């Protein structure tokens, strides 16, 4: 990955470390209450799509985009299930943004007109579809859980496609 992000495994290790410290500070019962009543906000997938799959050629040799998005959804589902096993119950996950329309991708691959990159857009749509389906399944599978998808794709795409509705008159100027 080119961006400075923590892997899901590293994030889980940090969460487990936090749990140990919390238990030491407030005890087992209070920790269980705090963890089960907390709200977890999770973003997964966009870095893997934009900065790994489309930037590092080896990923495209290992997986086609359908298999890669399935793998990302699988990793996210495992992460959610591990959080659930540790006591988390209320989680909100963002879907991925319009990856091919992000300024970095338009600059790097969008040509002189900085157009949206079609292949990355297709990857985002594919991931989001699989992701939403998986989260609905997990909601049913994990008793007492409340897992929701926060759609960031649609409003961001609307802003990019119809910028003058939202204020900027020259969206590509910066």
UniProtKB/TrEMBL annotation:
Family label: Belongs to the 'GDSL' lipolytic enzyme family.
Any one of the GO CC terms: extracellular region
GO molecular function, one term: hydrolase activity, acting on ester bonds
Organism classification: Eukaryota, Viridiplantae, Streptophyta, Embryophyta, Tracheophyta
Coiled coil ranges: none
Name of a matching Pfam family: Lipase_GDSL
Protein name per Swiss-Prot or TrEMBL: Triacylglycerol lipase
InterPro entries named among the record's database cross-references: GDSL, GDSL_lipolytic_enzyme, SGNH_hydro_sf
């Amino acid at each position: 990955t080119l961006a400075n992000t923590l892997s899901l495994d590293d994030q889980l290790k940090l969460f487990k470390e936090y749990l140990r410290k919390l238990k030491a500070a407030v005890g087992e019962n209070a920790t269980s209450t705090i963890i089960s009543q907390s709200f977890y906000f999770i973003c997964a997938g966009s870095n893997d799509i934009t900065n790994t799959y489309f930037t590092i050629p080896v990923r495209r040799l290992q997986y086609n985009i359908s298999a890669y998005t399935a793998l990302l959804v699988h990793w996210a589902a495992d992460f959610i299930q591990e959080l659930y096993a540790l006591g988390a119950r209320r989680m909100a996950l963002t879907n991925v943004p319009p990856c091919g329309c992000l300024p970095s991708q338009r600059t790097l691959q969008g040509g002189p007109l900085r157009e949206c990159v079609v292949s990355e857009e297709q990857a985002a749509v594919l991931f989001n579809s699989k992701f939403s389906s998986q989260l609905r399944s997990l909601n049913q599978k994990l008793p007492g859980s409340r897992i929701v998808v926060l759609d960031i794709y649609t409003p961001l795409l609307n802003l990019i496609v119809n910028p003058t509705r939202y204020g900027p008159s020259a969206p590509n100027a910066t």
